[in-house]
C-alpha cells in the first residue's frame, strides 16, 4: 500500500505540473497513464481548472489523491522533457525511484534569465509592429513600451498579485508608453495596438479549444472563459490611454 501511495503522489505531482505549465488535458492523461502502466498500476483521472482527482489501483488496492493545480509559467521545453520522461519510463520500465530522480532534475533545471526573456519579448513586439506596417520610430517606441509593460508584469507576478489586475495594469503601462508616438510623426495606432500583444493568452485559448474538441468540455470551457476574461482586462488597460488621448486618436 505504501508503494501505491508513493506512485499516486508522484503521478499526481507530475500531472499537475503539466497542467499548470500549459499542456492540454488529453496529453496529460496519456502521459500519466503511460507512467502508470510502466509501474504496473492503472490510472483514472478527473481534471478541473484548479484541481485534479487521481485514482491509482492494482488488483488488490486503491488509492486516491486530490491535489491543486499550480499556476506555472508556460514552458514548452519543460513540457517536452516531461513528456519524454513518460516514454522513457514506458520503454525502459524505469523503477519509481529513478523516475523521481529524473523528474526532480527536470524541475530544478536552470531556467532562462527573466531579463533575457524581457529583452526577447521586446524584440518580438517591435517586430510585430514593423510587420503590421509601423515605421521605425514606432518600432523603437514599441520596444521600449514592451519592456516597461512586461517588466511591470514580471514584478507584479513575483508579488503574487491577482493575474486579472496584472494584465490590466501591464496593458495600461505598455499602451501608455506607446502613446508617446503621438509626439512624433509616427504610426500611433499600430504602435499602441502592438504594444500589448505580449499579453495575449494564446496558450489558454488553444488548449481550451483542444480540450473541448477532445471531449474535456469542463476543463476546456474553464480555460476559454479565463482567456476571454484576460482579453477583457487587456482591453480595459488599453482603453484608458485611448480615452486620455481621444482628441488625437478617436
Per DSSP, the total helix count is 11
Helix and strand composition category: mainly alpha
Biggest sheet, strands in spatial order? 1-2-3
Q: How do the helices and strands follow one another from N- to C-terminus?
A: HHEEEHHHHHHHHH
For the record, give the distance between the C-alpha atoms at the N and C termini, rounded to a whole number: 68 Å
Largest sheet, in brief, is:
3 strands, antiparallel
Description:
By secondary structure, the chain is mostly helical. It is 68% helix and 8% strand. It contains 11 helices and 3 strands, in the order ααβββααααααααα. The chain has helices at residues 2-20, 25-38, 76-92, 96-107, 114-131, 136-158, 163-178, 188-194, 202-213, 217-244, 246-249, and strands spanning 42-47, 51-57, 62-68. It has a 3-stranded antiparallel beta sheet with strand order 1-2-3, with helices on one face. Helix 7 (163-178) runs antiparallel to helix 8. The longest helix is centred in the last third of the chain and has 28 residues, at 217-244. The mean pLDDT is 88.
Task: Characterize this entry briefly.
The protein is mainly α and 250 residues long.
Question: Which features characterize this protein?
Answer:
250 residues, 8% strand, 3 strands, mainly alpha, three-stranded antiparallel beta sheet, 68% helix, single chain
Amino acid at each position: 500500500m505504501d508503494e501505491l501511495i508513493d506512485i499516486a503522489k508522484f503521478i499526481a505531482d507530475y500531472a499537475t505540473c503539466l497542467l499548470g505549465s500549459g499542456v492540454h488535458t488529453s496529453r496529460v492523461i496519456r502521459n500519466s497513464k503511460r507512467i502508470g502502466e510502466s509501474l504496473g498500476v492503472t490510472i483514472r483521472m478527473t481534471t478541473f481548472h484548479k484541481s485534479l482527482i487521481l485514482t491509482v489501483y492494482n488488483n488488490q488496492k486503491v488509492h486516491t489523491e486530490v491535489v491543486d493545480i499550480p499556476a506555472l509559467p508556460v514552458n514548452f521545453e519543460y513540457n517536452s522533457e516531461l513528456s519524454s520522461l513518460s516514454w522513457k519510463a514506458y520503454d525502459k520500465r524505469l523503477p519509481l525511484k529513478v523516475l523521481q530522480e529524473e523528474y526532480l532534475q527536470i524541475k530544478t533545471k536552470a531556467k532562462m534569465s527573466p531579463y533575457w526573456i524581457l529583452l526577447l519579448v521586446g524584440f518580438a513586439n517591435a517586430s510585430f509592429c514593423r510587420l503590421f506596417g509601423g515605421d521605425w520610430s514606432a518600432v523603437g517606441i514599441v520596444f521600449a513600451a514592451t519592456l516597461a509593460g512586461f517588466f511591470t508584469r514580471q514584478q507584479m507576478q513575483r508579488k503574487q498579485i491577482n493575474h486579472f489586475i496584472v494584465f490590466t495594469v501591464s496593458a495600461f503601462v505598455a499602451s501608455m508608453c506607446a502613446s508617446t508616438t503621438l509626439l512624433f510623426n509616427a504610426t500611433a495606432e499600430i504602435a499602441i495596438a502592438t504594444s500589448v500583444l505580449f499579453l495575449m493568452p494564446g496558450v489558454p485559448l488553444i488548449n481550451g479549444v483542444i480540450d473541448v474538441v477532445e471531449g474535456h468540455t469542463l476543463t476546456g470551457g474553464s480555460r476559454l472563459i479565463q482567456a476571454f476574461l484576460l482579453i477583457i482586462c487587456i482591453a480595459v488597460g488599453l482603453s484608458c490611454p485611448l480615452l486620455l488621448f481621444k482628441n488625437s486618436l478617436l
